[in-house]
Amino acid sequence: xxxxxxxxxxxxxxxxxSLFFSCQENEDPNSISQGEMIVxxxxxxxxxxxxxxxxxxxxxxxxxxxxxxxxxxxFGYYISHVRLEGPNGEVFIDEMNASADAKQIKxxxxxxxxxxxxxxxxxxxxxxxxxxxxxxxxxxKEDGIQEGAVGGIxxxxxxxxxxxxxxxxxxxxxxxxxxxxLRDENRLQIHIGGWKNIPSADENPQRFFDNNVEVSLxxxxxxxxxxxxxxxxxxxxxxxxxxxxxxxxxxNNIHSPAxxxxxxxxxxxxxxxxHTHQ
Amino acid sequence: xxxxLTTRDRLIWPALLFVVIVWxxxxxxxxxxxxxxxxxxxxxxxxxxxxTFQNNDVNEKGFxxxxxxxxxxxxxxxxxxxxxxxHVQSHAxxxxxxxxxxxxxxxxxxxxxSPPLFNLAFQxxxxxxxxxxxxxxxxxxxxxxxIEMDESFENLVHKLNNHxxxxxxxxxxxxxxxxxxxxxxxxFSQFMLLMVSADSRYDQFVKGDQNALNQEEIEGxxxxxxxxxxxxxxxxxxxxxxxxxxxxxxxxxxxxxxxxEVAQDRAKFKVPSLRNIEVTSxxxxxxxxxxxxxxxxxxxxxxxxxxxxxxLVFKNGKPTIQLTDPEKEKIIAFLKSLTDDNxxxxxxxxxxxx
Lengths: 278, 354
Hints:
A: mainly beta; 10-stranded mixed sheet; globular; B: Cytochrome Bc1 Complex, Chain D, domain 2; 35% helix; disordered N terminus; heme (chain B); metal-binding (chain B); Di-haem_cyt_c_peroxidsae (chain B)
């Protein structure tokens, strides 16, 4: 009888412990200290600060290498899959999650010129240590599209840059006016998107273009992340690196992956880490 | 060996069972009854669905909300057309034969025949050119198209948030205080995912009921398998590929080329399913044929040499498919056995808006 009671007791303990553990969320072992980093994005057109003008504005603030004047009425880009690397093998991979619930979205960011709260990307839960390089994807890859409808900055109804006819996001958007463009309202629209690749095989040509771009930027100095140290790399993006040589009389209406390829090849070079605040 | 249930067994097994139940309960967190009219069930003879159910599982409230949206003309810019205007259940959710091209707001005429809606959980690309790569995104294109509902998705969601009923219904279905785009799309998908058509006489036949098809229809099935199956593959009756079957006399619609941006895809369109084909006249993206005999005649003698013409239907300067008139009749008899009366009359899809 005693034996049965002890078995019963063991069973009950086992039962409740399994109840407890089975519903408990996994927690990080708190032994690893963590810190944060704020990555600042600052957009320029050559050496001029980027300013967004009203649609219809004829105030042409900028000009390209061909002497073609233009202004900007909308500019921005998506960033995802952020990764940090350090000199001693430190690696931080920003968590990614695409969800209908805007609060559950992780790892997707959008820099929108004119909305200053979007200029800073706040990275959290970075293992303490040294870092000297940031790598990110410019755009939204398949994992942000093929999970289906997503919320927040990826919600078309909330202003996400999303193609309805060829599902996918506009990774990098340029809109404005240029007297060089003979379209109605001298319109300038360069929408760079595309996430799929079907490579060429046999006599078949490549179908679709994955216009996501990996940007890899060394810091000017190694920075330290800890519970008390929150460094801030300052990234500068120069639009003239992308459209400086473009003939805006011809290339003023880009709306598909293949047409965007010539621009995509220049995107990675438009970004540079200017300096880092420790 | 005779098995004796010892005291230990009596205690351990219920305890283990309980642990398993608790564990399963934590994983699935489902309080829905397992058997329900409003659950998606894969027909036994179908492939695995490709829809992302893990992000949007179908339930009664979400389904009914999707249905209410589907039948609601206030979603269009001027309140004149709903999804159901061009997707009619008695025609397997294609448009009626009266509208070879559907009419959108202000009677704007479309440019391609409205496709039927069923078995969407098994498809990976949508519309005739396959430009939409997930079912959730399909409604956006119809809503925003100037020749269809001509409403921005942004404004549609704004209208729903100011509606007398929708905010409450979205809260009940999805637990959200504010309606946002993805939940509207999830509701649409829930309604469309249950549009499963797998109960035609053909289906009963392949599942073992030898009497479901008559002799002529069985002969038609065998002819179909010989001449049509390579593109219209069972059980979906499409291989989901894009092909030019020569249906445009002169190419005005680029079809798949507009999506892939290569000339090799010019004039290619998605191979449509042939399920419910009897009720989805007219046929082809350009609605060229009213009757199934016209379609078969096109394949046997109508096709002309053209750029990207599919070698399965046209080779060495002539159509590849050869059929006698009696063979055509048998194939047509078989195609009519693909009509799924239970689907096109299923009351769960009936309009229940006021």
